[in-house]
Amino acid sequence: MSTTTRETTIEADETLPIIRITREFDAPPERVFAAHVDPDDVVRWLGPHGYTMTLQRWDAETGGGYRYTHVSPDGGEYRFFGSFHEVRPAERIVQTFTFEGFGDSVALETMTLTALDGGRTRITGTSLFDSVAARDAMLASGMETGVVEGYERLDALLLDA
Amino acid sequence: MSTTTRETTIEADETLPIIRITREFDAPPERVFAAHVDPDDVVRWLGPHGYTMTLQRWDAETGGGYRYTHVSPDGGEYRFFGSFHEVRPAERIVQTFTFEGFGDSVALETMTLTALDGGRTRITGTSLFDSVAARDAMLASGMETGVVEGYERLDALLLDA
């Protein structure tokens, strides 16, 4: 396990309103994919440490939708909703994403799973915004902490399974 | 009716991979909105003159999805699918869009309806692509003809109703 890379890379594109995220996991694509679509798994890892997540809706399939709430340790509520454009098992998830605190801003998110040697997986995520200002507002909102800590929780879930 | 403007404006953004479309209609927002979500209306106007449209799925509501086929006069078939991020009656529709002939390219489309004097409506559409190349490929695909002719058919539908 000495070669394991668990660093989350989060990059803003130089010219387009895009955020790119790369992360590797110690589980095969089928398992990492399942953790992104199975509602019992999702509530165990998505979001920062110490938050609880409740699903108002979760239909993780092509043409489906979702709506969920994160509750912080001090009781603050954060609501998100979106639709699933395409859910292609173990390969690709394309979905929309709105953080209700950001008004009408919508991001289009694409996640691709790539099998690595040793039963590992690299996920590559792209979040596309309709303006550079909206992208930068998302970066400034604390989303990096949420992503990094969420993937640490996902590591633990994958070890546990 | 002498002041009616029925010109469709289609513009490519200078720096972002966006297409913007503006069009006015001789009907109020409620009616123009209905023509975009009612499946019986949609199949009567969406797409170029002479095409027939069949719906494999049509759930035009927040978190819903769609899949349809256009058949050209010479029998060519063109398939499209996507999801509805948000459907806000008479105000706004946000959806994803894939033309299956374009591989995995996905656009995020936002349409806003604005009430004008005289019971008329202006719609403003934005299609956001993940690269300038994908946006330019869509412009080169003949989409402009489809949009312009579709709105001509929508004019006729609105007069007919």
Automatic annotation (TrEMBL), chains A, B:
Ranges of residues in domain Activator of Hsp90 ATPase homologue 1/2-like C-terminal: 26-158
Database matches in Pfam families: AHSA1
Protein origin, superkingdom: Bacteria
Signal peptide: none
Transmembrane residue ranges: none
Family classification: Belongs to the AHA1 family.
Listed name of the protein: SRPBCC family protein
Protein species of origin: Pseudonocardia nematodicida
